[in-house]
Amino acid sequence: METLDLLEKLRQEIDECDKKIVEAFEKRMEIVLQILECKKAKGMGVFQPEREEQILEKVVSNLRNKNFSGEIKEVYREIMRVSRRLQSKHLFPYNIVLIGFMGTGKSAVGKQLSQWLGMPWTDTDRMVEERARMTIGEIFEIYGEKYFRELEKAVVQDLQHGDHMIISCGGGVILKGENVEALKKKGKLVLLQAGADTIYHRIKGDFSRPLLKDDMSITQITKILDERRQRYLKAAELVIDTENKSIDEVCHEIILQLIEKGTCNLSADFS
Ligand SMILES: Nc1ncnc2c1ncn2[C@@H]1O[C@H](COP(=O)(O)OP(=O)(O)O)[C@@H](O)[C@H]1O
Ligand SMILES: O=C(O)C1=C[C@@H](OP(=O)(O)O)[C@@H](O)[C@H](O)C1
Ligand SMILES: [Mg+2]
């Protein structure tokens, strides 16, 4: 057979394979949505790591040519992430926005939630750093806090167009009313709380936070917390106490509370 004819024939075979894949994919996604209803009824989480491991093992064992084990695993990891994302899109049809004081776990919890729910994650501090090509510490040192707040505001304004994401905010995002307004357009604001003692113990070894660089103490944390408390509470649509809870436990609590709220007033707020 001529090379060009062969190429055409092989392409037709690929098209046939793709048709089957699309059919199977569509069916899989429909089943994924039915599973969501069962999980909801049983109070189960979207992310079931043991089940995902079993699926990976099963698809590899179904392979006739084991040379493709790595490839099939890669594809399936992505399929399972997309499945999680589809389920969480139905559960949480809005951005989940984490606010709260430094050290309450906004960044760590956001990252973990993103993994569990298959939702993309962004951190306003990282966005500011990327845009300025400087660390937060350098921005404060060279240009001062006011300039940092303007950069933070610009990032938040851009984020108001994002859909179905986890957004970890910098602790001072609530200092500007327009930030809160923009974040609420498509998001549910979840306040993470912790006492000054806990916060101090979580962040005492980390000097990347300029507001505490010269005075990393419980007294200084308490002072700034007191100044901001009302703003945090006013902005929050859901309040989560993180004291004596692991990062996983905080994530569970957020998911549970958001689902609980969803049955009463979320659909009205976020339709
Ligand atoms: N619930 C928690 N329990 C224990 N350590 C935590 C918890 N939440 C966050 N941490 C830790 O505290 C530190 C600060 O967390 P981070 O997510 O950076 O806070 P934030 O973004 O709110 O400033 C990190 O070392 C993180 O691993
Ligand atoms: O509370 C604040 O004003 C700040 C909190 C920091 O973020 P984290 O809350 O993630 O530490 C960072 O945005 C900056 O250092 C200022
Ligand atoms: Mg952070």
Automatic annotation (TrEMBL):
What does the subunit section of this Swiss-Prot or TrEMBL entry state? Monomer.
Taxonomic source organism: Thermotalea metallivorans
GO biological process terms on file: amino acid biosynthetic process; aromatic amino acid family biosynthetic process; chorismate biosynthetic process
What job does this protein perform? Answer: Catalyzes the specific phosphorylation of the 3-hydroxyl group of shikimic acid using ATP as a cosubstrate.
In the UniProt record, the signal sequence range is none
A molecular function (GO) held by this record is:
magnesium ion binding
Q: What is its main location?
A: cytoplasm
- DNA damage recorded as keyword: no
Q: Which Pfam family, any one, appears in the UniProt record?
A: SKI
Question: Any idea which positions bind substrate?
Answer: D125, R149, G171, R228
Residues binding Mg(2+), per UniProt = S107
Sites binding ATP sit at G103, T104, G105, K106, S107, A108, R209
The family assignment reads: Belongs to the shikimate kinase family.
Q: Which InterPro entries match?
A: Chorismate_II_sf, Chorismate_mutase_GmP, CM_dom_sf, CM_II_prokaryot, P-loop_NTPase, Shikimate/glucono_kinase, Shikimate_kinase/TSH1, Shikimate_kinase_CS
Subcellular localization, per the record? Cytoplasm
Give the organism's phylogenetic lineage. Answer: Bacteria, Bacillati, Bacillota, Clostridia, Peptostreptococcales
Q: What class of enzyme is it?
A: transferase
Among SUPFAM superfamilies, the record links this protein to: Chorismate mutase II, P-loop containing nucleoside triphosphate hydrolases
Q: Which SMART domains match?
A: CM_2
This one is known as Shikimate kinase
Q: In which pathway does it act?
A: Metabolic intermediate biosynthesis; chorismate biosynthesis; chorismate from D-erythrose 4-phosphate and phosphoenolpyruvate: step 5/7
- EC number(s): the record gives 2.7.1.71
State its cofactor.
Answer: Mg(2+)
UniProt cofactor note:
Binds 1 Mg(2+) ion per subunit.
An annotated GO cellular component: cytosol
The alphabetized UniProt keywords are:
Amino-acid biosynthesis, Aromatic amino acid biosynthesis, ATP-binding, Cytoplasm, Kinase, Magnesium, Metal-binding, Nucleotide-binding, Transferase
Q: Which residues form the Chorismate mutase domain?
A: 1-91
Reaction(s) this enzyme catalyzes, per UniProt: shikimate + ATP = 3-phosphoshikimate + ADP + H(+)
